Amino acid sequence: MGRFKSAISKLETELRYRCHRYYVETGIRKYKLASAAGISDTLLKGIDSPDFEASMKTLQRLDEVIPEDWEPAGAGSSGKILVPGQVDPVIGYKVWESDLSRSRKIYVRDELLHGLDPDQMERCALYIEKTRDPDGRLIEGKFKIDVLRAIAPQCAIHVFNVGEDNPDNYFIEHWDAGTGFWQGADMTGMKFAELDDEALRRCQLEDYLVCRETKWPNLSIVHRNYAHGEERNFLRLLFPFEASDGSPKILSITRPQSSGLAVDLLKKKLPGYDLKSGEGIVDLRSRRP
Prior knowledge:
Layout: H1 5-26, H2 30-37, H3 56-65, E1 90-97, E2 101-108, H4 113-116, H5 121-130, H6 145-151, E3 156-161, E4 171-174, H7 198-214, E5 218-226, E6 231-242, E7 248-256, H8 261-269
Antiparallel strand pairs: 1-2, 2-5, 3-4, 3-7, 5-6, 6-7
């Protein structure tokens, strides 16, 4: 076996790189990749790093999942491994302003959640994905708010009823007062139309309406200033789901951010992130094929 040691080592290096780049470039969730390969997702710890630890057997199982004709970005025709350019994780941003507040949101790709908040919000996302029906629908009663609170105690969990045709009549069905928002008041039952802050109302209505129409999760980083001096940075993840009678609702999960990748992206991208389609404009309806 000694005469083949170098060749085996080279093959292992190439396989490790290929598996790492497939995970990064496709944005596939770790648990989905592991499931497709028939292995535990604990074996993929650190796969977001090019030198992640994995046995040859694990790499071979992963390689069987990757389409044969798939090649990593930046692989030259000579076969030499090049450093791939990173895909911008930010889809775009929007700004809403009034005399009472200023809201700025960066919309980011869903797969960025692992890098933004693997400790809390990604746990929620994994739990939600596991409670979906085989056809992908998320039905009320299949997931438990108490479970979400238990696995992510630093997150706030809200439920919005978006069943009315008029978005102004959307209302808060369940409010987690742990956010400290509005001095910890319970906002349960409040309609969007009751928000006297025009910028905040438009900011919320647009996102929840799009989430209801597209039935897509929505991940954003929010920076908000209020006229009274309060400032907030937080992650927000929206999941559309159905009530038992089929009417639409939205699960909102938020977590404050004082440092880390989310804050770094805010500093880097705001206020001057320039989209090809126009500064400050992003159409969430066209963010996926």
